[in-house]
Design brief:
There is one protein chain. By secondary structure, this protein is an alpha+beta fold. It is built from two helices and ten strands, in the order ββββββββββαα. A six-stranded antiparallel β-sheet has the order 2-1-10-9-6-7, with no helix packed on it. Strands 3-4-5-8 form a four-stranded antiparallel β-sheet, with no helix packed on it. Strand 6 and strand 7 form a beta hairpin. The chain is rod-shaped. It starts with a strand and ends with a helix.
């Protein structure tokens, strides 16, 4: 699972996005370790935490100024389950979190080896002889004629 997190500033309307793996947990706020730095009045260094547990996502308010989930203020320090449909608000920002399933990539298969050539051209190639186009034509005509003679003798 991968998360697509977007934050929209109420003041400027600017939207920032980031992708991450939620398994180790991530913190949003104005601190340097924040996945998306959220600068503004009322934003704590570590304002909220998002983490995954048993395949479900949770948000935890870490701030003194509050985090709202679907218009309900969260209890500080208490994890709450969230889905992609939920709206998270903190002072001056609206945050959306979407889960995305990672599609495994199939390693590319090597190209199949070319089929071995057969016939007069393959024979000439095996002999390691380098001939011009005209010489190759003459050799092919001679081999073709020889084949017709052999077939005639066998049938006759």
């Amino acid at each position: 699972m991968e998360l697509l997190i977007s934050s929209r500033s109420h003041e400027t309307g600017a939207v920032n996005t980031a992708r991450c793996d939620p398994n180790g947990g991530l913190t949003l706020g104005r601190g340097p370790d924040s996945l998306l730095r959220l600068d503004g009045t009322g934003i704590s260094r570590e304002h909220l935490r998002v983490h995954a547990e048993s395949g479900a996502l949770f948000v935890t308010d870490l701030s003194s100024n509050g985090t709202w989930l679907n218009a309900h203020r969260l209890t500080r320090g208490e994890p709450h389950p969230i889905t992609s449909a939920d709206e998270i608000r903190i002072p001056g920002f609206e945050i959306h979190i979407e889960t995305q399933t990672l599609v495994p990539t199939i390693p590319s298969q090597p190209a199949p080896a070319p089929l071995p050539r057969s016939g007069p051209r393959a024979l000439i190639g095996k002999l390691g002889v380098s001939l011009s186009g005209g010489e190759t034509l003459l050799v092919m005509l001679a081999l073709g004629t020889l084949t017709v003679v052999v077939l005639y003798l066998i049938a006759g």
